[in-house]
Amino acid sequence: MRVLLIEDDHDTAKIIELALAAEGIVCDITDLGDDGKDASKYNEYDLVILDLMLPDMSGYDVLKSIRDYNLNVPVLILSGLGDSEEKVKGLVCGADDYLTKPFDKRELIARLKAIIRRSKGHAKSVIKIDNLVINLNTHTTMIDNKPVHLTSKEQSVLELMALKKGAVISKENFLSHLYNGMDEPELKIIDVFVCKMRKKLYDISGGINYIETIWGRGYALKDPDEIPESQRIIGDGRLFNVV
């Protein structure tokens, strides 16, 4: 997952960045509302965390711009303004949630995950696809109650695919959600992650493929019976090779 944080207090921004990193969530940070507007317009984010008191403009103006752009990205207001009128105003202006400072990091993460899940059409933190069970809270994967031992990056790839179940995700999209532009690897690394993850799922499931390769476009997580016949049986090793 990838989050945009618009916050001018550097200590607060660092606390949030570290808390999100511990959950495997990439966080882009800006301390100016104008930069935040541009970032939300030209990048794909799963959620925006927005402070209301910014040095160059009101957070409400940033929120208005995001909605005027017709962007459906969820927005969580995080502000020291805690009276009811401000909360009502924020929600009426288009925010999805409002959390006051000081805040508990655990509550922030819980609210953030819940908002993102619901925005993708998932009411619960556990996503089931056939016998595959992905827990977004514990960052674990099971098949038939047997754990699938994935690396943190493989788990992040699978969670992104689960949140967007059935949708084709490009390699560029994967990279933008796994890295924050710092030491970003080549696109080929996504093929490596997917192939290793596919092999692990195959071994635990006894030969079931949950991941469809859409050549030249990316990958999609689907129910096994929705995957083309040519990709369902992968015991010959074809889809374990990096292409």
TrEMBL record:
One of its GO terms (biological process) is regulation of DNA-templated transcription. SMART domains: REC (SM00448), Trans_reg_C (SM00862). InterPro entries: CheY-like_superfamily (IPR011006), OmpR/PhoB-type_DNA-bd (IPR001867), Sig_transdc_resp-reg_receiver (IPR001789), WalR-like (IPR039420), WH-like_DNA-bd_sf (IPR036388). It comes from the Bacteria. Residues 2-116 form the Response regulatory domain. Residues 124-223 bind DNA. The keyword Ion transport does not apply. Gene3D superfamilies: 3.40.50.2300, 6.10.250.690, Winged helix-like DNA-binding domain superfamily/Winged helix DNA-binding domain. Residues 124-223 form the OmpR/PhoB-type domain. Keywords: DNA-binding, Phosphoprotein, Transcription, Transcription regulation, Two-component regulatory system. The modification 4-aspartylphosphate is found at D51. GO terms for cellular component: cytosol; protein-DNA complex. GO terms for molecular function: phosphorelay response regulator activity; transcription cis-regulatory region binding. CDD domains: trans_reg_C (cd00383). This is Cell cycle response regulator CtrA. It comes from Candidatus Jidaibacter acanthamoebae. The lineage of its organism: Bacteria, Pseudomonadati, Pseudomonadota, Alphaproteobacteria, Rickettsiales.
